[in-house]
Write a structure and sequence with these properties.
The protein is α+β, with helices and mostly antiparallel strands. It has one helix and two strands. A hairpin with a 4-residue loop joins strand 1 and strand 2. It is rod-shaped and about 70 Å long.
Amino acid sequence: MSTSLTIWTKRLVTTAIIYSVLLVATIACQRAFNTSEINLLIGTADEQQLSYELIIHNPLTNTYSFDIIED
């Protein structure tokens, strides 16, 4: 009985570790993609001398809103 419990405990811990690694990798990829997209938007707006508003909604993943302000 204790052997089967140990096996299930090891499987549970292994599964939790795998899912945690996948979650961290997903967040890191999303943050990197959003950061490069923000840099591209800001660079393009600055080149064209446009006014813009950038709001970062979630600093962990860098989800954002970007709007060009019409004068």
